[in-house]
UniProtKB/TrEMBL annotation:
MF term (GO), any: oxidoreductase activity
Pfam families tied to this protein: adh_short
Organism: Lunasporangiospora selenospora
InterPro entries, per database record: NAD(P)-bd_dom_sf (IPR036291), SDR_fam (IPR002347)
Gene Ontology annotations of biological process type: steroid metabolic process
Protein name, UniProt field: Retinol dehydrogenase 16
PANTHER family, per database record: 3BETA-HYDROXYSTEROID DEHYDROGENASE DHS-16, SHORT-CHAIN DEHYDROGENASE/REDUCTASE FAMILY 9C
Amino acid sequence: MTAYSGSRHAAEAFYDGIRVELAPWEIDVSMIEPGFAKTPIIGKLAASFEEAWNRADETVRQMYGGSKFLEAARKEQGRINEMAIPSEWVTLQTVDAIQKVNGAEKARALVGKWHSRLFMRLLDFLPDWFLDWAYKGVMKTMGTIPNNPFLLNDLKQD
């Protein structure tokens, strides 16, 4: 998630800057931020994960909790597939932003189901310590935090 989150924040900062810089020419800039959309990438998520898991060294699999992690990951992938929005929603939001006479209503257009958009807006107001605590809890529940990260030391010695 680090690379993904970093690139999202970089893109947001870029669009914020360019929106301000182009304002004197009355050029509107909007950033469309979709949640998970039903695309081929999401469709191949489970198969790609299974393939990577099967290629992983046994020590790495143990580090993440073995079959417990695998089941949690499968459950999470199912949840992602269920909450993914139709890809057409993103296209419609983009066209809507382009066709507005005075630009989009907001500089950031979150595209997704209403509860996902509300949740993302609320995150902006929460303190970092709370977000860190919540993310760690979610990651632990999903099994994406290693149960025993020090097993890697055994792998390095081999």
